[in-house]
């Protein structure tokens, strides 16, 4: 199933016990020699454009509905892709991983993420509040990178309160746009009977963070 389809399934089942509502295994990103979790998925548009599906021998997990894990880095003010792996069972029936980056790109890594324009959300420090869905948990601090065509436009370091204020401001601005309304209307049409306005807004704040935080 594609990322968007699964997220829409989350919408329809959020009040129940859906496996798709599980907190997700994040991609990883290296910044100045330190590796962090990445709470956005810059490879999603590439995978969707290629109609990518996990290979038959891949291990599916409710904790990773993407079906892969990518590893990234910020180098020379640019976002680059270092690796993409899927989880598989080896001959000894032990879980391991297999690289698929060579199936996606002819060139060796690092690959400039020229296709990506959006915001990278990178949590730091202790987890302050756990949410059992997607990247909903909150942390002590955050880094935000605004990316345009793979190039870094802006880098911010925020504490939890600053991040919350910044996110609310950006989301409120985005709510005034035709882009927001189109996404909102689409979600209402799919789950009008099961979802309240607040349900949809909460979902959109998380799922579309890379869109509105990049504005």
* CA gyration radius, whole angstroms: 17 Å
From the spread of the alpha carbons, the general shape counts as globular
Low-pLDDT stretches are 1-21
Helical percent range? 25-40%
Number of strands: 9
Roughly what fraction of the amino acids lie in strands?
25-35%
| Main beta sheet | 6 strands, mixed
Derived structural class: alpha+beta
Tell me the number of helical segments per DSSP (H or I, 4 or more residues long): 7
- SSE succession: HEEHEEEHEEEEHHHH
Q: Round the mean pLDDT to the nearest integer and report it.
A: 85
Distance between the termini: 29 Å
Please characterize this protein's 3D structure:
- The structure is a single chain.
- It is built from 7 helices and 9 strands; from the N terminus they run H-E-E-H-E-E-E-H-E-E-E-E-H-H-H-H.
- The chain has helices spanning 3-13, 44-49, 101-104, 160-174, 178-191, 197-207, 209-212, and strands at 27-31, 34-38, 69-75, 78-89, 95-99, 111-112, 118-129, 138-148, 151-159.
- The strands form 2 sheets. Strands 1, 2, 3, 4, 5 and 6 form a 6-stranded mixed β-sheet that branches.
- Mean pLDDT is 85; it is low at 1-21.
- It has 215 residues and is α+β, with helices and mostly antiparallel strands.
């Amino acid at each position: 199933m594609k990322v968007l389809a699964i997220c829409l399934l989350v919408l329809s089942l959020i009040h129940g016990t859906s496996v798709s509502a599980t907190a997700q295994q994040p991609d990883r990103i290296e910044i100045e020699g330190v590796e962090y979790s990445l709470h956005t998925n810059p490879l999603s548009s590439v995978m969707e454009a290629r109609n990518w599906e996990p290979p038959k021998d891949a291990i599916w997990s409710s904790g990773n509905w993407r079906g892969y894990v990518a590893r990234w880095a910020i180098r020379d003010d640019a976002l680059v892709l270092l690796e993409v792996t899927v989880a598989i069972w080896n001959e000894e029936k032990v879980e391991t991983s297999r690289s698929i980056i060579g199936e996606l790109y002819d060139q060796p890594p690092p690959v400039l993420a020229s296709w990506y324009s959006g915001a990278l959300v990178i949590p730091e420090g202790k987890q302050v509040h756990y949410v059992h869905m997607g990247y909903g948990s909150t942390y002590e601090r955050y880094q935000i990178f605004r990316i345009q065509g793979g190039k870094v436009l802006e880098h911010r370091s925020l504490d939890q309160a600053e991040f919350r204020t910044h996110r609310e401001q950006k989301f409120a601005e985005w709510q005034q746009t035709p882009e927001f309304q189109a996404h909102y209307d689409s979600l209402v049409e799919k789950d009008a009977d099961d979802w309240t306005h607040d349900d949809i807004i909460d979902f959109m704040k998380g799922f579309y963070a890379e869109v509105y935080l990049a504005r």
